[in-house]
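Q: Structure tokens for this one, please.
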Amino acid sequence: MIEEEAASVDEARLALAEDGSATALWSARDDDNNARLVARRCDAAGAWEAPVFIDASTAGGSHVEASHPALAQGASDTTAVWRQWNGDGRDIKARSLQADGHWGEAVLVDDGAHVPRAPCVAAGASFTLVAWVRDREGGGGQDLWFKVRR
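A: Here is the predicted structure, written as tokens:
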């Protein structure tokens, strides 16, 4: 069992590395009823590390609402993307688990100005691609946006 402490677990994702290690990502409610993203890494021998919250904390300890996670394994790191409440709307954020086993800082992918949603991520040998849907400025539909990290 990967998670048995949380009262509510949802939106589970898995990524497998060539070396046999794995990363699990899911949403769970914390003690303050915030929707948080939890990640847990398993080494190639099957030993699970302690779970960690990877969503970006909000300034001043305000309510955290992270959801819609996606996860992809690249050649040298694992990248998670998700949608998170910013106080006025929802941002798209990304964070990578480096080859040394440490999570980098959360990065803003979309500032939430035009209702971003449905983030997804894919990784190749030399790049990571993040895509999401965003309302068109002025209304009238949605567009598919993407960013590439090399």
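A few notes: The chain has no helices and eleven strands. Residues 120 and 141 are 19 Å apart (CA to CA).
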